Amino acid sequence: MEDSRSAQQILDNIFDVMQRLYDEMRLNKNGAGEHLRIFEIFAELGRTLVGADRASFWKWDKRHGKLLTATATGLDQIIIDDTTGIVGRALAENRTIVTNDPYSHPDFNAEVDKKTGYVTKSILVMPVANCRGEIIGAFQVINKLGDEAKFDAEKDTKRLSIAAFICGMALESDLFLADSQHDKLTELKNRLSFHSDYQLYQRRAAENALPVSLIMCDIDFFKKVNDTYGHNAGDAILMHVAKILKRNLRSCDSAYRWGGEEFILVLEGTALAGAAKVAERIRLAVADSVCQFNGDDLRVTMSFGCAEISFALAAEDNVKLADSRLYTAKKTGRNKVVAE
Questions:
Q1: Is the domain covering 189-338 a CATH 3.40.50.10330 domain?
Q2: What confidence category does residue 5 fall into, taking pLDDT thresholds of 50, 70 and 90?
Q3: From start to end of the chain, where are the E strands?
Q4: Residue 261 annotated in active site
């Protein structure tokens, strides 16, 4: 049993963490990405509550079937398939998992320990839910401190639930923002997300002294598809094209549904000539593809306008330049790329 002095020390530590969390939320004015600092403090709260050496907070990206750490003590971001590891097991079965012998646990992945030299002796993983009871993430603490160095399934779960509850509310807000910045039909990012990301592109371009290019494209004669085959066929074409866009982009590139049948692609570290080559590759991929819908083989083509972004201009002005070149492509025959 903990004596009154050790219990008071734990309580004081919790108050300290909560004070830091309050100050971070009240004073943070740095914009996009800075919410990650709040998740770091959440992890510190969980670590303090149960007396653990390390803590990590995991987000469940159901769209891509991945688990990724919003924060993890002493580690860079980790991304794993959502069907793997003890965290994946806890989410799949919607239950807290405690093991004080992780190397004997069938779901424990020892690869991180092998790479870092860290020795994991005990683990507690607790699923995190939103207000509708849907599992959206997990809280994990590692290596219980103290003489016994073992997590108590009842006591430590009860304590960690405080941090898990707060994290659930914060993560729900974070995921709600992510959903609001994605197009539900194509699952691409949307116009709101483009304007949110633009500041990140500008900052990274300044830091790395690398070009960033923008491609604006749309589906030729899209109205004819809707008029001939119906709007459901139009939706199938949009999803078909979105998949081709994603397949032909790097992980560092981004695709946005701008509206209707229009899309914007942003290529970091790519100059205008490179963007034109990417656009041509996508143009050919779309023209050579077939979208099957209700027994019909539907074919479409796309037109493209490319521009290298100048961050001396507003985002709207860079989009306007690419759009003007797209307009030229459409007025001079369609199914082509214009980059100047």
A1: no
A2: very low
A3: 52-61, 66-72, 79-81, 97-99, 123-129, 135-144, 189-190, 212-219, 254-259, 262-268, 291-293, 296-298, 302-308, 337-338
A4: yes
